Known about the structure:
four-stranded antiparallel sheet; 2 helices; 2 domains; Neuraminidase; alpha+beta
Amino acid sequence: MATSFYESSNYKSHFDSTIEKLRNEIKTQIYSLIESLKKREIELLSGLDEIVNTHKSKNKELQQKLEELTELYKANKKNFESSELQYLQKNFLEEIDRKIESTTQQISSSSFPDFTWDDKLLSQIETFGSIKLKTKESIKYTDKITPIVSVCEKGNEKGHLKSPWGLAIDYTSGNIYICDQQNNRIQVFDSGCNFKNIFDISTSLRQPMGIAIHKGNLYVSEGCQDVLVFDLQGQLLKRLERRHRPDSKESSIYGISVHETTGDVFICDFKNNRVQVYSEEFKLKHLLTGFTKPCYVEVTHTHIIVLDKGNPCLHWYDYDYAFVKSLITRGGDGQVENVAAFCLDFEGNILMTDDYSISIFNKRGELIHKIKDDVTYPTGIKLDSKNRIIILSYRDKNCLQMF
């Protein structure tokens, strides 16, 4: 019987040879593609290294400029303590502010070609070679600002307030923590000012006046002289009692603030006209004096800012506890007579409470806006993560309000 063509050894040999040839060609193309990808990877990494090195070099130069300005400021600040040089001090500090702002803008605009920078550098990577960072919108204070939420119930029920004083915001959860002073408790509201929880800690807390959040803990100052630390669920962790203080004068504690990096605790001793500075372990570090009824304190990365209710004015100090500048709030268009609290927005503007208004000043101390609608004896003020103004109202209304 004759053998068919498809069964012939010649065809099988030809078929095997063709398959082997195709395999070799595919392997060759794959190897070529791999080599091309490796070469492209090297080119991309080299380009990225060049961008990073350029950024580091420019950033180093601009950082040196900032250091030079800082040294210039430190070298001259002692010359500004006498009253006859106050005008020169004001002009000099304004010039320093302008130069620092200009240098900061250079850093922001000259780092990476496709980057937009913000304060916290919250990055959002979209594509390789096109990295964009989220930015905060500039706050506008020119429009009429009115309350969008008001929680006004006086009493001792849940969600009701009685002479509220200090407040703090947990920017992770958005929760608002309030010193419900005459009810001797801390109340918790969510980011929409809805009641959420209550810390019934009247056995350990008397007249809470000031409150701050640091590393997931609540630092609460009592009008009756002690400082207590709780976790965010209301569990007492530690207590600084008056009898344990190196300087155990009878005192009246109001505002409190905690430095984000060092953990140092700053306490307004209203009765003894001073600000006490403690380490994170509650060891006394310094007594900042020369005030008349200090009632509120805020600490930034660069300054200690104290509200002196008796004058009234704000005082800035550096972390060598040296005086830097003051903002006098009495007199002029931006007159604030009965100031009780203040806060800073992320642009450095100052929001300050008065009996029936909130005054907003820029970094140079110039009044840029005033909120008068539905504000009565505010005793606490903060900005949340959406730049909404949160205030507490004392006396008549006993309110938590959002603007």
